[in-house]
Amino acid sequence: MSPNQTPAPWLKHIRQDVQSMHAYAIQDSTGMVKLDAMENPFTLSPELQKQLGERLGALALNRYPGNRINVLRSELAKYVQMPEGFDIMLGNGSDELITLLSVACDVPGASILAPLPGFVMYAMSAQLQGVTFLGVPLTANFELDEAAMLSAIATHKPAVVYLAYPNNPTGTLWSADAIERIVLAQGQQGGLIVMDEAYQPFASQTYMDRIAQHGHVLLMRTLSKFGLAGVRLGYMVGPKALIAEIDKVRPPYNISVLNCECALFALEHAEVFAQQAAQIREEREKLSHSLALLPGVQVFPSQANMLLVRMPDATKCFEGMKLKGILVKNVSKMHPLLTNCLRLTVGTPAENAHMLAALKESL
Length: 363
Prior knowledge:
The chain has 13 helices and 13 strands. It is α/β, with parallel strands linked by helices and 363 residues long. It folds into two domains: 130 residues, Aspartate Aminotransferase, domain 1; 207 residues, Type I PLP-dependent aspartate aminotransferase-like (Major domain) (Aspartate Aminotransferase, domain 2). It has a seven-stranded mixed sheet. Helix 3 packs parallel to helix 10, helix 6 packs parallel to helix 7 and helix 12 crosses helix 13. The model has no long low-confidence stretch (mean pLDDT 95).
């Protein structure tokens, strides 16, 4: 706005906190090797692409989504081996589910708590709903600060505690015992726990085998890391009565027939995506070993499809890699614990080789 311009009159209707926010930034990846968003780098085979195309082309796009949504819910429940007495709800990505939780839990004085650094949408959805967000820093090596978490739960009695398992952007799979003590403490004060398992295909553990022991735990996953980031489909599993309450704030028809059919097709070919996940896990270990050999580079253990690395000058390295056509995520300004850190998505063998070469030259 130039000095001679007056503020637009409609601005008075936009919340002040919204005006001071920045929109979620998506980097331009045109012509780049895209390793900034934890996407599955593998595509479907030509034969499966043809089958999916024919199936999508036959859909009744002139109709609102119907019972196929419930078919998808049923197939997902089987896929995750959902316990008896539990239910499943769908979201337009897990982002929408996080938003719906903030809406449903927005009672006077409510707060939402999560470790930091963590997924930015926990804080953003709380802020947009006018719910207090409480961030508890991780330890220097990105483990849960259990004492601080338990103290914050006792003091603030949050409505929701998010635990990402593994965590983004660190890739950490936190101590199962520490998580269980936090789950119990949150349950004792009457709050909810959300286990966010977005990166479950790449992790050695899941909370699904323990969820039936608790009536206050929701488990959230997404098909984005499964291999369908473009489809935008997240899902949340929890006790029937709890899911029923949160589902009341879900917009009708929030899952399109295209999203739904793509997801059903993927589940029918789950073995293809399982093979891709296995290859990504193998590549992660190779890449981690190679990065650890670079002078001045610290690579942190990861159970996700990304690696967090610290170097002497992350911004210089990020810009150098970008000039060489490699796009990664500079997270060094996201939180003090992430100083001089880059987050590298694990790509194909060829992409990883290009990334490693560009990183070496940019250090």
